[in-house]
Amino acid sequence: MKRLAVAGGVNLLLGVPGVVPCFLVWYVMANGPLAELGWTQREPTENDGMWLWLVILVPVLTLFGLVWGLLNTWMSRRMTAAGWPARPAPYWTLCAVAPLVPYLTLVPLSL
Description:
By secondary structure, the protein is mainly α. The chain has one domain (about 1-110). It contains 6 helices and no strands. It has helices at about 1-15, 20-30, 35, 50-80, 90-95, 100-110. The protein is elongated.
């Protein structure tokens, strides 16, 4: 359990800079496809088009995804070598949910 708590803590800390990619994904979705469906309203001052946001979003999301994937793969291998059980489901579930906690904490505070 201690190793799983360490993995959760590392992913929670990784979620702090992960707020930026989460916000960028939401901004692009809210001003693009979701606004076209009528689910959100476009930002009235957003007149640069979506290309600029995709040029910003893709490198940021790629960098965060690479750091997250490489770090968690490395920790998973270390835990397996140290005798962690063969079932990886709890580890990867925790690693997928923990980085979202800082963003999901900030969303209600921003309303």
